[in-house]
């Protein structure tokens, strides 16, 4: 078990995580983690970035929204390479 100290930083309290634990969980500074309480334990879990399929992204798209001018210009532009539509 690793022991660390809680530190007050502004209005928050920070938990310093030893590099060895970050390496075990493949985490880096700036990674998102989930926090939960289990009895009298604080549980910190890696919260990986979600990966979406193209079908999921398309299903969540709002096709009724008006295109902004930059999008309209790009959509109306002539092909400049080997684009397939």
UniProtKB/TrEMBL annotation:
Coiled coil: none annotated. GO terms for molecular function: DNA binding. Residues 7-52 form the SpoVT-AbrB domain. Gene3D superfamilies: 2.10.260.10. This is Antitoxin. It comes from Sphingorhabdus profundilacus.
């Amino acid at each position: 078990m690793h022991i660390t100290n809680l530190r007050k930083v502004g209005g928050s309290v920070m938990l310093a995580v030893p590099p060895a634990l970050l390496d075990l969980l493949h985490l880096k500074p700036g990674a998102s983690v989930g926090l939960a309480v289990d009895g009298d334990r604080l549980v910190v879990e890696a919260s990986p970035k979600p990966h979406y399929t193209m079908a999921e992204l398309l299903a969540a798209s709002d096709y009724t929204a008006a295109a902004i001018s930059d999008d309209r210009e790009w959509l109306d532009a002539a092909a400049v390479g080997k684009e397939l539509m």
